[in-house]
Amino acid sequence: MPLVPMRQILDEAAKGGYGVGAFNVNNMEQIQAIMQAANDTNSPVIIQASRGALKYSKMIYLKKLMEAAVEEYPHIPVALHLDHGNSVETCKMAIDLGFTSVMMDGSLAEDGKTPNSYEKNVEVTRAVVELAHPLGVTVEGELGCLGGIEDGHGAGLSDEAVKDHLTDPAQAEDFVKQTGVDALAVAIGTSHGAYKSGRKDPKTGEVLPPTLAMDRIHEIHKRMPHCHMVMHGSSSVPQELVDIINKYGGKMPGTFGIPIEQIQDGIKHGVRKINVDTDSRLAITGAIRKVFAEQPEKFDPRDYLKPAREAAYQVYLARMKAFGQAGHAGDYKPMTLDEIKTIYR
Ligand code: G3H
Ligand code: 13P
Ligand code: ZN
User: Is the CB of 148 inside a 6 Å radius of any atom of ligand 2?
Assistant: First the structure.
């Protein structure tokens, strides 16, 4: 089966009332682990690559790995998505490479840091929609800014400043109308990475859960019941994965993630795409550290990449079940870009 337009995967998820994990990849092991988990749970899935991932994998390697993935699992609908495209040119490059979906993150300027004006966001996002839809390619836009900056995406906003950059539901309605995006990434107080909470108990110094504006999601869903929302920064940062890292020499104090129950609440209210990268990174790092610490004589990369792949697989498997996509791979006949093109027209 060729790669599927992401729009169809999201439309079907809306019909079925479930969410779909969008997992970031940089290498073969992650792609294999995702596909194995999708196969074992019979899940449709979204695989996404950031600009950093494309640079790391030199693009063509990632493209060929994805070709192998769809060839090995022809019964699994898979969309290949560009994560946080920073310009029309970057999105065009991904489309030319064969991506079936792109994100134009016009919430930030091309540097990936400075918040854009609303007008600029509409302008660049609409330009990508005009380019992508005639080719059958899905477009995700973003309104509002995530917190944090640790991975190079984000305005580096403090917990307080983030509150001023949450997605405004009325503006969201206008944004979707003006741009024609297929999916809308919303800012509700999440951030990328393993440190999603700047809140500490003033007495004990203990890290407190991040406060999420779930009401924004509820309100947007009420206003636009057919809008597919995207939650970025949705890793749950399981303490047990962080504990493994710390046990074997890592130093990651004070981490915090998004509880699965909050994501599930989002799914009940129109969230269809859930972005997860950090959880896979944690699982992989912990597994590799364990081998290095317990078997320091090992030097064959397969001795640590195999457990790393297995650890990532367990994360994907758990998320696919929790988000509800499990069991839905065979629900529909996947469309080609050519078929969906005619619908956009
Ligand atoms: O958007 C954030 C993802 O975790 C990708 O991060 O740019 O380090 O590949 P990256
Ligand atoms: P996490 O860092 O929480 O995994 O979020 C990833 C993400 O949003 C990619 O766009
Ligand atoms: Zn993101």
Answer: no
